Amino acid sequence: MESLPYILPIVMLILAIGLAVAVKMLSIKSIIGGCTIGVLFLFMIGCSIFMMVISSGFEEKMAVKDQEVADMVDWKYKHMDEMSLIIGQQRMPDDEHVALIKQLNSYGWQINNYSIRLLQDAHQALEVLKQEHGIARTRYLLKGVPSSVERKLVEMGLRNVGFRIVPFKEQEEVPENANALYFGQNVDLDSIKMAALTLMQAGIELKSIKAFPKPTRGNVRAIKLDWSKYFDTRLPLTVAAVVESKGFN
Questions:
Q1: How far apart are CA 162 and CA 135, in angstroms?
Q2: How far apart, in whole angstroms, are the C-alpha atoms of residue 157 and residue 86?
Q3: Which of 52, 127, 236, 244 is at a distance of 20 to 30 A from 207, taking alpha carbons?
Q4: 169-207 confidence digits (pLDDT tens)
């Protein structure tokens, strides 16, 4: 069936030649000649209609195949990000990190320190949310991961929960920190929570999660991180506040 769109034009050409020969050799006024030419003409019309139907079906199959290829590409990059994230998370700390941990221990820090526990709580809440609700099929846009974190790891973590990272332009400066998360009106609540928890587990203190003040065509399916002096005096949002929220405003 898939080869019909290629065969039918040849068949139509042969029928056209046959019709031309029939018109030339047979008398249109005779009953046999008229019937022969009429049958050939009707057969050509039928073939044309059949070809149109087959072609439309072929286009639908091509669209399905294109979607399958796109899904395979998304699957490939998703799992590549997962592997890269796992490798990045398992890397050994360098001498500078080891020295910092020793220094913190000398100050009296313990493994169950409140700040560290907040990061762990955010990670656990994120894993639960992913298991219970899954990852949205829509690939929302996200921009603004600050330089205060390991940006590559955080961006891989965000891609792992369904976001497409929008890179900074050459003339744009990467912000040092972020305390506010703005989301578009079409971004679902679970995706907002996953983005927030991914950032919180990296140590970013979010103090506000709000919709964009001015919805536009470019931000309805997007999330943007920003830093605002207005929010800086607020207390950071807790993991529970993010997880239990019924809607941010």
A1: 6
A2: 10
A3: 127
A4: 888 889 999 999 999 999 999 999 999 999 999 999 999
* SS3 annotation, 17-51: HHHHHHHHHCCCCCHHHHHHHHHHHHHHHHHHHHH
What values do phi and psi take at 217, rounded to 5? Answer: -65, -25
Alpha-carbon distance 66 to 207, whole Å? 42
CA distance 245 to 146: 25
Q: Cβ distance 186 to 221 under 8 Å?
A: yes
Region 127-137: what's the mean pLDDT? 87
Helix (H/G/I), strand (E/B), else coil: 210: strand
Q: Which two tokens stand for residue 168?
A: 């900074």
- How many angstroms separate the CA atoms of 169 and 17, rounded? 62
Tokens of 230: 């207005």
Strand 222-226 relative to strand 208-211, pairing: unpaired
d(CA 205, CA 40): 78
The answer to whether the CB of 243 falls within 8 A of the CB of 193 is yes
pTM of the predicted model as reported, rounded to 2 decimal places? 0.63
Kindly tell me the burial class for residue 10, based on how many C-beta atoms sit within 10 Å of its own C-beta (0-12, 13-18, 19 or more): exposed
Tokens 């990852």 -> residue: 135
Cα 64 to Cα 66: distance, rounded to the nearest angstrom: 5
One-letter amino acid for residue 206 of the chain: L
Q: What is the pLDDT of residue 86?
A: 56
Task: Give the pLDDT of residue 225.
Answer: 96
Count of CB atoms situated within 10 Å of the CB of 213: 6
The backbone torsions φ and ψ at residue 226, rounded to the nearest 5 degrees and listed phi first, read: -150, 165
